[in-house]
């Protein structure tokens, strides 16, 4: 599973959206995965319930969250979606987020060995949050993903399978 392939197959890049609160932002990030059949409807509620219980553990850096839940919470296949917000939302821990990259992983191994390195590679690009929020088209986002492929985090990963 690679970001470019997942974004294209699931038509899951949505830019310049507006959310009233963090729950709506998570919903916007999960909707493309529900629409494409990558996850079941209950996946969204599993993320909300998990956030209520453990806090927003999926805020990976200032401005960026990776909402996800366990594979058994309704994941049909590995997928990603990316949503940018015109205005940041505030999560229960007080952190502001304007980019959400939702993850659906069929196993913990996919999550840690394939998904996380690609996400780190994308978000280690200079000014990644600002650049993503400024993107006007899916092609601009995909160009950033392409740019991130030189990252040392991706060495040895076979992203073509």
From TrEMBL:
Named from the GO MF annotations, one term is: kinase activity
Chief subcellular location equals cytoplasm
Q: InterPro entries from the xrefs?
A: Ascorbate-PTS_EIIA_comp, PTrfase/Anion_transptr, PTS_EIIA_type-2_dom
Its BP terms in the Gene Ontology are:
phosphoenolpyruvate-dependent sugar phosphotransferase system
Q: Which UniProt keywords apply?
A: Cytoplasm, Kinase, Phosphoprotein, Phosphotransferase system, Transferase, Transport
Q: Which domain of life is it from?
A: Bacteria
Domain PTS EIIA type-2 stretches: 6-148
Q: Tell me where it resides.
A: Cytoplasm
CC annotations in GO: cytoplasm
What the protein does comes down to: The phosphoenolpyruvate-dependent sugar phosphotransferase system (sugar PTS), a major carbohydrate active transport system, catalyzes the phosphorylation of incoming sugar substrates concomitantly with their translocation across the cell membrane. The enzyme II UlaABC PTS system is involved in ascorbate transport.
Q: What is this protein called?
A: Ascorbate-specific PTS system EIIA component
Which organism does this record belong to? Answer: Streptococcus pantholopis
């Amino acid at each position: 599973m690679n970001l470019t392939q997942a974004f294209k197959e699931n038509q899951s890049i949505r830019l310049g959206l507006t959310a009233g609160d963090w729950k709506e932002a998570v919903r916007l990030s999960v909707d493309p995965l529900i629409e494409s059949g990558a996850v079941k409807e209950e996946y969204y509620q599993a993320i909300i319930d998990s956030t209520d219980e453990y806090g927003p553990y999926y805020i990976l850096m200032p401005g960026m969250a990776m909402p996800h839940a366990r594979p058994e919470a309704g994941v049909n296949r590995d997928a990603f979606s990316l949503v940018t917000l015109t205005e940041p939302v505030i999560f229960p821990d007080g952190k502001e987020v304007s980019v959400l990259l939702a993850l659906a992983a069929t196993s913990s191994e996919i999550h840690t060995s394939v998904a996380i390195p690609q996400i780190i590679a994308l978000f280690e690009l200079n000014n990644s949050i600002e650049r993503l929020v400024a993107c006007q088209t899916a092609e601009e986002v995909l160009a950033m993903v392409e740019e991130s492929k030189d990252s040392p985090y991706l060495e040895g990963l076979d992203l073509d399978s």
